[in-house]
Protein backbone atom coordinates (compact mmCIF):
# COMPACT_ATOMS: atom_id res chain seq x y z
CA UNK A 1 0.00 0.00 0.00
CA UNK A 2 1.07 3.61 -0.40
CA UNK A 3 1.91 5.84 2.55
CA UNK A 4 -1.48 7.62 2.25
CA UNK A 5 -3.32 4.33 2.68
CA UNK A 6 -1.09 3.38 5.64
CA UNK A 7 -1.92 6.76 7.18
CA UNK A 8 -5.66 6.29 6.61
CA UNK A 9 -5.69 2.80 8.12
CA UNK A 10 -3.77 3.72 11.25
CA UNK A 11 -4.86 7.32 11.76
CA UNK A 12 -1.21 8.43 11.88
CA UNK A 13 -0.43 11.42 9.66
CA UNK A 14 1.98 11.09 6.71
CA UNK A 15 4.56 13.54 8.18
CA UNK A 16 4.52 11.58 11.45
CA UNK A 17 5.06 8.28 9.60
CA UNK A 18 8.02 9.85 7.78
CA UNK A 19 9.37 11.10 11.09
CA UNK A 20 9.23 7.57 12.58
CA UNK A 21 11.11 6.25 9.53
CA UNK A 22 13.80 8.92 9.95
CA UNK A 23 14.09 8.10 13.67
CA UNK A 24 14.50 4.39 12.90
CA UNK A 25 11.26 3.27 14.60
CA UNK A 26 9.69 2.11 11.35
CA UNK A 27 11.46 0.47 8.39
CA UNK A 28 11.35 2.50 5.18
CA UNK A 29 8.86 1.27 2.58
CA UNK A 30 10.03 -0.62 -0.52
CA UNK A 31 10.86 1.92 -3.24
CA UNK A 32 8.62 1.38 -6.29
CA UNK A 33 9.82 4.53 -8.07
CA UNK A 34 12.35 7.24 -7.12
CA UNK A 35 9.78 9.12 -5.04
CA UNK A 36 7.25 6.47 -4.12
CA UNK A 37 7.41 3.63 -1.60
CA UNK A 38 5.17 0.70 -0.82
CA UNK A 39 4.25 -0.38 2.70
CA UNK A 40 3.06 -3.80 3.93
CA UNK A 41 0.81 -5.12 6.69
CA UNK A 42 3.97 -5.49 8.79
CA UNK A 43 4.45 -1.73 8.61
CA UNK A 44 0.85 -1.25 9.64
CA UNK A 45 1.23 -3.60 12.59
CA UNK A 46 4.47 -1.95 13.72
CA UNK A 47 2.93 1.50 13.39
CA UNK A 48 -0.01 0.51 15.59
CA UNK A 49 2.45 -0.80 18.16
CA UNK A 50 4.44 2.46 18.09
CA UNK A 51 1.26 4.51 18.60
CA UNK A 52 0.06 2.34 21.48
CA UNK A 53 3.42 2.66 23.25
CA UNK A 54 3.40 6.44 22.79
CA UNK A 55 -0.32 7.23 23.29
CA UNK A 56 -1.31 4.81 26.00
CA UNK A 57 2.06 3.85 27.46
CA UNK A 58 3.31 7.44 27.50
CA UNK A 59 6.76 6.41 26.20
CA UNK A 60 9.00 8.92 24.43
CA UNK A 61 10.06 8.33 20.82
CA UNK A 62 13.57 7.54 22.11
CA UNK A 63 12.24 4.97 24.58
CA UNK A 64 10.13 3.34 21.86
CA UNK A 65 13.25 3.09 19.66
CA UNK A 66 15.09 1.25 22.43
CA UNK A 67 12.21 -1.12 23.12
CA UNK A 68 11.82 -1.96 19.42
CA UNK A 69 15.57 -2.60 19.07
CA UNK A 70 15.20 -5.27 21.77
CA UNK A 71 12.11 -6.71 20.05
CA UNK A 72 13.95 -6.92 16.72
CA UNK A 73 17.09 -8.69 17.93
CA UNK A 74 16.48 -12.44 17.47
CA UNK A 75 19.83 -13.38 19.05
CA UNK A 76 18.67 -12.86 22.61
CA UNK A 77 17.46 -15.84 24.65
CA UNK A 78 13.90 -15.52 25.90
CA UNK A 79 14.60 -14.68 29.50
CA UNK A 80 17.14 -11.99 28.58
CA UNK A 81 14.70 -10.43 26.11
CA UNK A 82 12.02 -10.50 28.80
CA UNK A 83 14.48 -8.75 31.10
CA UNK A 84 15.49 -6.21 28.49
CA UNK A 85 11.95 -5.43 27.37
CA UNK A 86 11.00 -4.68 30.95
CA UNK A 87 14.27 -2.85 31.48
CA UNK A 88 13.95 -0.36 28.65
CA UNK A 89 10.54 0.72 29.87
CA UNK A 90 11.82 1.76 33.30
CA UNK A 91 11.20 5.43 34.12
CA UNK A 92 14.30 7.38 34.96
CA UNK A 93 13.50 10.22 37.30
CA UNK A 94 14.55 11.95 40.46
CA UNK A 95 17.82 13.70 41.16
CA UNK A 96 17.20 14.62 44.76
CA UNK A 97 19.19 14.68 48.02
CA UNK A 98 21.77 11.90 48.27
CA UNK A 99 21.12 11.11 51.94
CA UNK A 100 17.43 10.43 51.33
CA UNK A 101 18.31 8.44 48.24
CA UNK A 102 20.74 6.21 50.14
CA UNK A 103 18.14 5.60 52.86
CA UNK A 104 15.59 4.71 50.16
CA UNK A 105 18.09 2.36 48.53
CA UNK A 106 18.56 0.60 51.88
CA UNK A 107 14.80 0.15 52.20
CA UNK A 108 14.52 -1.24 48.67
CA UNK A 109 17.46 -3.63 49.23
CA UNK A 110 15.90 -4.91 52.46
CA UNK A 111 12.57 -5.34 50.72
CA UNK A 112 14.05 -7.36 47.83
CA UNK A 113 16.04 -9.53 50.22
CA UNK A 114 13.00 -10.21 52.42
CA UNK A 115 10.79 -11.17 49.48
CA UNK A 116 13.59 -13.27 47.99
CA UNK A 117 13.11 -11.79 44.53
CA UNK A 118 15.79 -12.96 42.04
CA UNK A 119 16.62 -9.54 40.66
CA UNK A 120 19.97 -8.11 39.65
CA UNK A 121 20.54 -5.05 41.84
CA UNK A 122 21.66 -3.14 38.72
CA UNK A 123 18.24 -3.62 37.04
CA UNK A 124 16.90 -0.18 36.05
CA UNK A 125 13.58 -0.85 37.80
CA UNK A 126 15.51 -1.02 41.09
CA UNK A 127 16.67 2.53 40.39
CA UNK A 128 13.08 3.59 39.50
CA UNK A 129 11.82 2.15 42.77
CA UNK A 130 14.58 3.91 44.72
CA UNK A 131 13.62 7.17 42.93
CA UNK A 132 9.93 6.79 43.82
CA UNK A 133 10.71 5.96 47.46
CA UNK A 134 13.06 8.96 47.64
CA UNK A 135 10.31 11.22 46.28
CA UNK A 136 7.88 9.87 48.89
CA UNK A 137 10.35 10.70 51.66
CA UNK A 138 10.84 14.21 50.33
CA UNK A 139 7.10 14.97 50.45
CA UNK A 140 6.85 13.67 54.01
CA UNK A 141 5.35 10.28 53.13
CA UNK A 142 8.44 8.17 53.69
CA UNK A 143 6.34 5.69 55.66
CA UNK A 144 3.98 4.93 52.75
CA UNK A 145 6.43 2.49 51.18
CA UNK A 146 6.98 0.64 54.46
CA UNK A 147 3.26 0.59 55.30
CA UNK A 148 1.95 -0.72 51.97
CA UNK A 149 5.02 -2.69 50.94
CA UNK A 150 3.95 -6.26 51.46
CA UNK A 151 0.40 -5.70 50.24
CA UNK A 152 1.80 -4.20 47.04
CA UNK A 153 4.33 -7.02 46.70
CA UNK A 154 1.63 -9.69 47.11
CA UNK A 155 -0.43 -7.88 44.48
CA UNK A 156 2.36 -7.53 41.91
CA UNK A 157 3.39 -11.15 42.37
CA UNK A 158 -0.16 -12.12 41.37
CA UNK A 159 -0.03 -9.69 38.46
CA UNK A 160 3.34 -11.04 37.28
CA UNK A 161 2.02 -14.61 37.37
CA UNK A 162 -0.97 -13.58 35.23
CA UNK A 163 1.34 -11.66 32.86
CA UNK A 164 3.70 -14.61 32.44
CA UNK A 165 0.76 -16.99 31.90
CA UNK A 166 -0.50 -14.67 29.18
CA UNK A 167 2.92 -14.52 27.53
CA UNK A 168 3.36 -18.30 27.89
CA UNK A 169 0.23 -18.89 25.82
CA UNK A 170 1.66 -16.95 22.85
CA UNK A 171 3.34 -19.22 20.30
CA UNK A 172 5.97 -17.56 18.10
CA UNK A 173 8.99 -15.95 19.73
CA UNK A 174 8.56 -12.62 17.94
CA UNK A 175 4.94 -12.54 19.10
CA UNK A 176 6.14 -13.44 22.56
CA UNK A 177 8.56 -10.55 22.80
CA UNK A 178 6.00 -8.14 21.37
CA UNK A 179 3.48 -9.48 23.89
CA UNK A 180 5.84 -8.70 26.75
CA UNK A 181 6.33 -5.16 25.54
CA UNK A 182 2.63 -4.58 24.97
CA UNK A 183 1.64 -6.32 28.19
CA UNK A 184 4.13 -4.34 30.23
CA UNK A 185 3.40 -0.88 28.85
CA UNK A 186 -0.33 -1.15 28.19
CA UNK A 187 -0.73 -3.33 31.27
CA UNK A 188 0.53 -0.41 33.36
CA UNK A 189 -2.21 1.81 31.90
CA UNK A 190 -4.86 -0.87 32.55
CA UNK A 191 -3.65 -1.30 36.13
CA UNK A 192 -3.48 2.44 36.86
CA UNK A 193 -7.07 2.91 35.64
CA UNK A 194 -8.29 -0.16 37.54
CA UNK A 195 -6.55 1.02 40.72
CA UNK A 196 -8.41 4.36 40.55
CA UNK A 197 -11.73 2.54 40.10
CA UNK A 198 -10.93 0.21 43.01
CA UNK A 199 -10.15 3.33 45.10
CA UNK A 200 -13.55 4.80 44.28
CA UNK A 201 -15.31 1.56 45.13
CA UNK A 202 -13.35 1.12 48.39
CA UNK A 203 -13.91 4.75 49.48
CA UNK A 204 -17.63 4.68 48.78
CA UNK A 205 -17.88 1.55 50.92
CA UNK A 206 -15.75 2.97 53.74
CA UNK A 207 -17.15 6.52 53.70
CA UNK A 208 -20.74 6.07 52.51
CA UNK A 209 -22.37 9.26 51.17
CA UNK A 210 -24.98 10.68 53.59
CA UNK B 1 12.85 32.83 53.53
CA UNK B 2 13.77 34.47 50.22
CA UNK B 3 13.16 32.80 46.88
CA UNK B 4 16.88 31.92 46.57
CA UNK B 5 16.76 29.98 49.83
CA UNK B 6 13.53 28.23 48.73
CA UNK B 7 15.30 27.27 45.50
CA UNK B 8 18.36 25.96 47.35
CA UNK B 9 16.28 23.86 49.77
CA UNK B 10 14.13 22.25 47.10
CA UNK B 11 16.54 22.10 44.17
CA UNK B 12 13.98 23.92 41.98
CA UNK B 13 15.43 26.86 40.02
CA UNK B 14 14.21 30.41 40.70
CA UNK B 15 12.72 30.89 37.18
CA UNK B 16 10.82 27.59 37.58
CA UNK B 17 9.44 28.69 40.97
CA UNK B 18 8.29 31.97 39.38
CA UNK B 19 6.67 30.01 36.55
CA UNK B 20 4.71 27.86 39.05
CA UNK B 21 3.51 31.05 40.78
CA UNK B 22 2.36 32.52 37.44
CA UNK B 23 0.55 29.25 36.58
CA UNK B 24 -1.23 29.26 39.94
CA UNK B 25 0.41 26.08 41.27
CA UNK B 26 2.21 27.90 44.05
CA UNK B 27 0.93 30.89 46.07
CA UNK B 28 2.97 34.07 45.64
CA UNK B 29 5.27 34.91 48.55
CA UNK B 30 4.43 37.68 51.02
CA UNK B 31 5.77 40.97 49.62
CA UNK B 32 8.34 42.45 52.02
CA UNK B 33 9.36 45.25 49.63
CA UNK B 34 8.21 46.20 46.12
CA UNK B 35 10.54 43.65 44.52
CA UNK B 36 11.14 41.12 47.26
CA UNK B 37 8.90 38.38 48.63
CA UNK B 38 9.16 36.03 51.58
CA UNK B 39 8.31 32.33 51.41
CA UNK B 40 7.35 29.97 54.25
CA UNK B 41 7.71 26.25 55.02
CA UNK B 42 4.26 25.80 53.47
CA UNK B 43 5.65 27.03 50.16
CA UNK B 44 8.53 24.61 50.52
CA UNK B 45 6.20 21.70 51.23
CA UNK B 46 3.92 22.57 48.32
CA UNK B 47 6.89 22.94 45.98
CA UNK B 48 8.16 19.47 46.91
CA UNK B 49 4.70 18.08 46.22
CA UNK B 50 4.57 19.79 42.81
CA UNK B 51 7.99 18.37 41.88
CA UNK B 52 7.07 14.86 42.99
CA UNK B 53 3.86 14.92 40.92
CA UNK B 54 5.76 16.15 37.86
CA UNK B 55 9.04 14.20 38.20
CA UNK B 56 7.90 10.86 39.53
CA UNK B 57 4.20 10.93 38.68
CA UNK B 58 4.79 12.27 35.17
CA UNK B 59 1.88 14.74 35.46
CA UNK B 60 1.74 17.85 33.27
CA UNK B 61 1.74 21.31 34.86
CA UNK B 62 -1.95 21.62 33.89
CA UNK B 63 -2.81 18.31 35.56
CA UNK B 64 -0.94 19.33 38.72
CA UNK B 65 -2.94 22.59 38.80
CA UNK B 66 -6.21 20.62 38.69
CA UNK B 67 -5.12 18.19 41.39
CA UNK B 68 -4.01 21.02 43.69
CA UNK B 69 -7.29 22.88 43.18
CA UNK B 70 -9.09 19.80 44.52
CA UNK B 71 -6.64 19.53 47.43
CA UNK B 72 -7.19 23.21 48.33
CA UNK B 73 -11.01 23.19 48.39
CA UNK B 74 -12.04 22.45 51.99
CA UNK B 75 -15.77 22.40 51.13
CA UNK B 76 -15.70 18.91 49.65
CA UNK B 77 -16.72 15.92 51.78
CA UNK B 78 -14.01 13.28 52.15
CA UNK B 79 -15.37 10.69 49.75
CA UNK B 80 -15.92 13.29 47.01
CA UNK B 81 -12.41 14.63 47.44
CA UNK B 82 -11.08 11.10 47.29
CA UNK B 83 -13.02 10.61 44.08
CA UNK B 84 -11.87 13.90 42.61
CA UNK B 85 -8.24 13.44 43.53
CA UNK B 86 -8.24 10.08 41.79
CA UNK B 87 -10.26 11.53 38.93
CA UNK B 88 -7.96 14.39 38.03
CA UNK B 89 -5.04 12.02 37.75
CA UNK B 90 -6.71 9.90 35.06
CA UNK B 91 -4.75 9.74 31.81
CA UNK B 92 -6.64 10.92 28.79
CA UNK B 93 -5.47 9.14 25.68
CA UNK B 94 -6.59 7.27 22.60
CA UNK B 95 -8.67 8.62 19.76
CA UNK B 96 -8.95 5.44 17.75
CA UNK B 97 -11.62 3.58 15.76
CA UNK B 98 -15.11 3.95 17.19
CA UNK B 99 -16.12 0.31 16.60
CA UNK B 100 -13.20 -1.04 18.62
CA UNK B 101 -13.84 1.57 21.28
CA UNK B 102 -17.48 0.56 21.67
CA UNK B 103 -16.50 -3.12 21.95
CA UNK B 104 -13.91 -2.18 24.59
CA UNK B 105 -16.53 -0.14 26.46
CA UNK B 106 -18.81 -3.19 26.50
CA UNK B 107 -16.02 -5.32 27.97
CA UNK B 108 -15.27 -2.73 30.65
CA UNK B 109 -18.98 -2.39 31.54
CA UNK B 110 -19.34 -6.17 31.86
CA UNK B 111 -16.22 -6.31 33.99
CA UNK B 112 -17.43 -3.60 36.39
CA UNK B 113 -20.84 -5.23 36.67
CA UNK B 114 -19.36 -8.66 37.35
CA UNK B 115 -16.99 -7.38 40.05
CA UNK B 116 -19.82 -5.28 41.55
CA UNK B 117 -17.63 -2.19 41.81
CA UNK B 118 -19.57 0.92 42.94
CA UNK B 119 -18.24 3.25 40.26
CA UNK B 120 -20.03 5.98 38.37
CA UNK B 121 -19.78 5.07 34.67
CA UNK B 122 -18.83 8.69 33.92
CA UNK B 123 -15.70 8.43 36.11
CA UNK B 124 -12.68 9.45 33.98
CA UNK B 125 -10.81 6.27 34.92
CA UNK B 126 -13.56 4.28 33.14
CA UNK B 127 -12.63 6.21 30.00
CA UNK B 128 -8.91 5.57 30.61
CA UNK B 129 -9.58 1.85 30.94
CA UNK B 130 -11.69 1.85 27.77
CA UNK B 131 -8.82 3.67 26.00
CA UNK B 132 -6.23 1.13 27.15
CA UNK B 133 -8.44 -1.83 26.17
CA UNK B 134 -9.07 -0.22 22.76
CA UNK B 135 -5.32 0.18 22.25
CA UNK B 136 -4.76 -3.48 23.15
CA UNK B 137 -7.33 -4.53 20.55
CA UNK B 138 -5.69 -2.37 17.91
CA UNK B 139 -2.29 -4.02 18.41
CA UNK B 140 -3.83 -7.49 18.20
CA UNK B 141 -3.86 -8.19 21.93
CA UNK B 142 -7.56 -7.73 22.54
CA UNK B 143 -7.58 -10.94 24.56
CA UNK B 144 -5.05 -9.69 27.13
CA UNK B 145 -7.68 -7.75 29.05
CA UNK B 146 -10.03 -10.74 29.16
CA UNK B 147 -7.25 -13.18 30.08
CA UNK B 148 -5.69 -11.23 32.94
CA UNK B 149 -8.81 -9.37 34.06
CA UNK B 150 -9.72 -11.13 37.25
CA UNK B 151 -6.13 -11.58 38.41
CA UNK B 152 -5.57 -7.85 37.92
CA UNK B 153 -8.86 -7.02 39.68
CA UNK B 154 -7.97 -9.22 42.68
CA UNK B 155 -4.59 -7.51 42.83
CA UNK B 156 -5.90 -3.92 42.65
CA UNK B 157 -8.58 -4.67 45.25
CA UNK B 158 -5.75 -5.65 47.62
CA UNK B 159 -3.81 -2.55 46.65
CA UNK B 160 -6.84 -0.29 47.18
CA UNK B 161 -7.40 -1.76 50.63
CA UNK B 162 -3.77 -1.07 51.57
CA UNK B 163 -4.04 2.47 50.13
CA UNK B 164 -7.22 3.27 52.06
CA UNK B 165 -5.71 1.84 55.26
CA UNK B 166 -2.73 4.12 54.76
CA UNK B 167 -4.95 7.14 54.17
CA UNK B 168 -7.19 6.19 57.12
CA UNK B 169 -4.19 6.39 59.47
CA UNK B 170 -3.53 10.04 58.53
CA UNK B 171 -5.15 12.48 60.96
CA UNK B 172 -5.87 15.96 59.57
CA UNK B 173 -8.15 16.31 56.54
CA UNK B 174 -5.69 18.40 54.54
CA UNK B 175 -3.03 15.76 55.17
CA UNK B 176 -5.54 13.13 54.19
CA UNK B 177 -6.30 14.69 50.82
CA UNK B 178 -2.62 15.29 50.14
CA UNK B 179 -1.95 11.67 51.11
CA UNK B 180 -4.47 10.46 48.55
CA UNK B 181 -2.85 12.52 45.80
CA UNK B 182 0.66 11.43 46.75
CA UNK B 183 -0.34 7.82 47.27
CA UNK B 184 -2.15 7.66 43.96
CA UNK B 185 0.48 9.28 41.77
CA UNK B 186 3.66 8.09 43.47
CA UNK B 187 2.01 4.76 44.24
CA UNK B 188 1.63 4.20 40.49
CA UNK B 189 5.39 4.70 40.06
CA UNK B 190 6.14 2.32 42.94
CA UNK B 191 3.79 -0.30 41.51
CA UNK B 192 5.13 -0.01 37.95
CA UNK B 193 8.71 -0.50 39.19
CA UNK B 194 7.70 -3.40 41.47
CA UNK B 195 5.78 -5.06 38.64
CA UNK B 196 8.91 -5.01 36.43
CA UNK B 197 10.96 -6.55 39.24
CA UNK B 198 8.30 -9.22 39.83
CA UNK B 199 8.40 -9.94 36.06
CA UNK B 200 12.16 -10.47 36.21
CA UNK B 201 11.86 -12.75 39.23
CA UNK B 202 8.99 -14.74 37.68
CA UNK B 203 10.75 -15.12 34.30
CA UNK B 204 14.04 -16.25 35.84
CA UNK B 205 12.12 -18.91 37.75
CA UNK B 206 10.10 -20.04 34.73
CA UNK B 207 12.87 -19.83 32.13
CA UNK B 208 16.02 -20.55 34.15
CA UNK B 209 19.26 -19.43 32.47
CA UNK B 210 21.31 -22.39 31.15
Automatic annotation (TrEMBL), chains A, B:
It comes from the Bacteria. InterPro entries: DNA-bd_dom_put_sf (IPR009061), MerR-type_HTH_dom (IPR000551), MerR_fam (IPR047057). PROSITE patterns: HTH_MERR_2. The keyword DNA-binding applies. Keywords: DNA-binding, Repressor, Transcription, Transcription regulation. Signal peptide: none annotated. Residues 1-70 form the HTH merR-type domain. This is MerR family transcriptional regulator.
